[in-house]
Amino acid sequence: MNADSTKSWQAVQAEVLRRIRDREWKPGELVPHEAELARELGCSRTTVNRALRAVAEDGLLERRRRAGTRVALHPVRKARLDIPVIRVEIENRGLAYSYSLISRAEELPPPAVRARLQSPPDHKMLHVLGLHLAAGRPYALEDRWIDPDAVPEAREADFSRISPNEWLVLNVPFGGGDIAFSAVEAGPDEAEALDCAPGAALFVTERTTWRGSRMLTTVQLLFAPRYRLHTRI
Amino acid sequence: MNADSTKSWQAVQAEVLRRIRDREWKPGELVPHEAELARELGCSRTTVNRALRAVAEDGLLERRRRAGTRVALHPVRKARLDIPVIRVEIENRGLAYSYSLISRAEELPPPAVRARLQSPPDHKMLHVLGLHLAAGRPYALEDRWIDPDAVPEAREADFSRISPNEWLVLNVPFGGGDIAFSAVEAGPDEAEALDCAPGAALFVTERTTWRGSRMLTTVQLLFAPRYRLHTRI
After folding, report:
1. In terms of domains, do A43 and A104 share one?
2. Which residues are in the HTH gntR-type domain (chains A, B) (predicted)?
């Protein structure tokens, strides 16, 4: 490549990708320092940095603060998922949103929920079941457990007016959580709530959220058939 | 809060979250400048910046370069999804990986695939169907279409030795893509390939990837029953 001080970071990115693809830089190998690359390619160090970051975001380089930048042994694509509250997701599609509370009780959770919330067997939890609707049609069934010791305000919340999904986002800032996506066949109650055939394939998300070491809540969201979750890579 | 120059960014984050939750800072409102917050809270501007970034990553603040930082009107949680090649995903679970090519042909794609690849009706595509196995058991069925004009090297690739999934990651750096997650009922051929009952609920990912304005490839990955995709928020 010729020295060219107006070289764009995209041009540098293309050259970096070429070297990785052509195995001039081999998987696992350290790549030259930014300053060295800047000299070699005749551009600024900022431009090299911007290009390497883009390639790293694509998962083809691994950058460690002190250890330098290596060609990834196992390239990993990264996707970013935005998870809005369900009301906003529906309104963003231009549809009218409504929510219908099905049941609310303090009760002993089943073993699977207890395991997710790491709670003792005799600890009662707030169990809230409700349906999110889009343009009057079932959209997602929210099956939520909240630890009332960790979130005492939840006892006073009026879940006939606001879904736990939205109430928690607005009232309980939390530190972290994990999330799983899968598919299940609709059971008879779920099929009735979501107005679909029993056995229909449903997209499911399960989320458990905590603050520090304290588990706050776990939820299963069962979406009506044909729901698709979109994102970009 | 007392002035305390050793205040951690986590303490500042907690204070920011408290103000949002208690509506001292209302949804949509501009928050004070970093320098002002640093003075008020008695910490460095770097600490304030680190804290605001963390809260923004949680989706509760919106930061715009020139317009300043606002309390989000519609909080959105952000999750990051790592998408490794399937071989690595399986090996990371400690299972032996294998891949079996089912078929390979250049043929006219069905309308849904044509739409995703934005190709004319008479344009033939490379169609590769194969099965990823974990410990000898079906893991995911890869139904892949590649535009051979956009990726001519694919014509020479030996997809009986390497899956298109892995070959593409290693050979074709691409600029972007979109991805959708959903659930479908297994059809008879799919059920046979994945060794499950017809009608079983399967988790599906569909990805279409491009470089510039050029569509390269689209794939449907059908995972065997009980597959779960995990991530953190």
Report:
1. no
2. 6-74
